Each structure stands twice: as C-alpha cells, then as structure tokens.
Amino acid sequence: MRITIQAQVEGADGSAPRSVTVGVIDRAADSAPTSGLGLFLGEAHAILRELQAVMLQEETAEFIDAASRCGTCSARLATKDTKAVVYRTAFGKASLKSPRLYSRCVGCGTVACCGLTFSPLTLALPERTHPQWTWLQGRYASVMSYRLAQIFLRDAFAAGRNLPASSLKLNARSVGKRLEGETERAVARIVRDGPASLGAVDTQRAPIALQIHAGNVRAPHRPDGARWIAAVASKVVGPQAERGPAHAYAATGFNPHQGIRQQAFLTAAGIPPATPVTVISDGGEDISFACQLPAATERVLDWFHIGMRFEHLLTAVRGMRGLDPPDKASSRDAPRVRSGCSGMGNLSVACSAWRAFGATPDGSDPRTHSAD
After folding, report:
1. Which of 29, 30, 106, 250 is 20 to 30 A off residue 338, Cα-Cα?
2. DSSP letters of 103-165?
C-alpha cells in the first residue's frame, strides 16, 4: 500500500492551482499489525516538516512580491542581491530567500525605505524563530532541566530532532530578559506616577487571592561566593481556577517596590488595579515588601507554612525538657531556636511553644506565668 499526501497551492493572483507532494507512506501487505497501525511519530514529523517548508516558501514569496513594489506607482523595485534567511519553527527550519532591494523607485523616484537598500523579509522577521517555538522551549525549560526539556521536545516535535540544550538555555534566557524588561518598565511607570495613578480600590468587587512565598535557588558560580539566590514566587489562587497566573523573580538587595511589582504582575494578567487583593503568606520578613500591594485589603497567614515553622521550633527545643533552669536560660539564645522564633512572626506564638516544653523566653519557671 502506498499513500501519497499532496498539498494544493492556490496563489492570491488567481493563477492555476498546483499540487506539491509533501509525503509518501508505504506499507507492506504482509506487515504484522502488532507493530502498530497508522502513522508513526517519525512519519508524522516528516510530513509536518515538508508541509511547513511548503507553507513558508509560499508565504514568503507572496509577502516579498507585495513588499517589492513601489507604494506610489506599483512598479517593481530593482533587486541588488539575494541572500538566505534561516527560520525555525516547531515543525522544522527552512532556508528562505531574502532579496535586497533598492529603496528608490526607478519609475517615479519614491523612496520606499531609509537607506540605499533594504530587505523586506529581514525587517519583517527581527527574530528568526517562530514565537510558538520560542514559547514551547521556554515553557518546558522553565519547569524541568534543559536536558529533560531537550528530550521531550525531540520526541514531541519535528524541530526538536536537532535542538541542542544550549539553544534551550539561550531562548529561555532571552524570554526571561524580555519579561523582566516589561515588568521593570511597568514598575517604573507606577513609581513615577505614584500608586494613586492606579485608582481607588473598589471594595464592591469580588477580591482575588494572591499567594506569595519566598525560597532560595542554587546559584551558579558567582564572584562574591554566594551559593544561593533569594527568590519570591506568587500565584493567583481560587476555588474555581485550575491553574492561575504565576510570577517569580530574584529578590536581590533592598527593593521596597516589590509590592508594586506584584501589582504590575496582576495588571499584566488581566486583573484590573481596582480589584481588592487578599494576600496569603507565611508572614515572614523576606516577603514583607512583596505583600505591600497598593490594592491589598487583607492579609491571611498560610497555616501550612506556619505549621512548618512550628516543626522547626519543636525540633530545636525537643531535647530541653531534661535541662536545668540555668541551662534552659542559656539555650534559648541558640541560633536554631532564635531563627525559628523570629520566623514565626509572632512572639506570643513562640512563647506558647516554649511553655509547652517547660521553658520561657526569660528562663523563669513557666508555672509562674499566666495562661495568656
């Protein structure tokens, strides 16, 4: 059995349709069905690769034909030379012809572009990668290692066959820089105009919940010797939303505008600035600036992380029951216990944990303290 797949191309100028073969599938009559019926991934990738090449050639040919004519007299501009432009998509890459044209029309003298010559295709494609292919690389490179993302894209898409891990890293970095630049410009605009430029919060609106947490990410080799980078992550959560918009950034240095950054993230996600925001966090000092949104109307403690703080504190003081009162008084300033208490964000909570194990922050007998 042989199946020939053809694409019928009809030009915009009304020319006669023509057929282009994009794939041929052969099957032997005695082949066992146990090996699989229908198309295989390799065959589907090959067909999509050929079909994409046909579409790219036809699209660029029509675009160049329209862009190479004078806007005044419709005469064709003179061609100086022709070069090749490599364009990458999720279904493969193609080498496209890119002619360089003279800007001045010979017939009427109209100048089509600045400079003596210009290339319409080069100006139309400042980035030589399809936006969807860039998005796919950034999408999977951001949630798994570059090696695993390379393997997945290689198996799932035709263009992933020759995709190196270095390209994944470069594309993910370029997408991150572009998003960071957009966020910084939005924050600078709000800081310049003032938070009042966002308008008053409409308390009649239904509030949205924004969950904010902080953590540390292992850093590559740095000149200052730092091995970890502080990161802040936020996500819009709700009982009905399966996957809300998420946002993460590196919190390096003193930055009091982190709350405005969160507000800019919500605006970019399509949430109006007048919408009330309920901030859900663990109350730690590392996200204090991030929780100060202009539209924040309420803050709620995340009891899951509060419970984790309790576990850290209980682990630190578990062995203090058998200590004498003087030893308890000296042990309360231990670094682990002190950091656990400070992370609670509430001294009374820490005092209650101390009393549960027969110790008080001032080293005195807990039976002399009231229950409150």
Report:
1. 250
2. SB-TTT--B-SSSSEE-HHHHH-SSSB-HHHHHHHHHHHTTS-HHHHHHHHHHH-GGGGG--H
DSSP, res 60: H
Q: What is the CA radius of gyration of the chain?
A: 31
Cα separation, 21 vs 8, in Å, equals 9
Position of tokens 């090696």? 147
Please report the pLDDT score of residue 240 as a whole number: 62
Neighbours of 85 (CB within 10 A): 15
Look at residue 328 in the predicted model and tell me its pLDDT. Answer: 67
pTM of the model: 0.67
pLDDT tens per residue across span 320-354? 666 777 776 666 555 545 544 444 444 444 455 44
Contact 226, 301 (CB under 8 A): no
Environment class of residue 228 by beta-carbon count within 10 Å: exposed (0-12), middle (13-18) or buried (19+)? Answer: exposed
Backbone angles phi, psi at 246, to 5 degrees: -125, 155
Helices (H) and strands (E) in the chain, counts: 10, 10
Q: Rounded mean pLDDT of the chain?
A: 80
CB pairs under 8 A, 24+ apart, for 334-338?
336/312, 337/313
Indicate the SS3 state at residue 337: helix
Residue 352, pLDDT score: 52
Model confidence at 372, pLDDT cuts 50, 70, 90, reads very low
Question: Could you give the angle at which helices 131-141 and 165-193 cross, rounded to 10 degrees?
Answer: 90
| Most distant pair of Cα atoms in the chain: their distance | 103
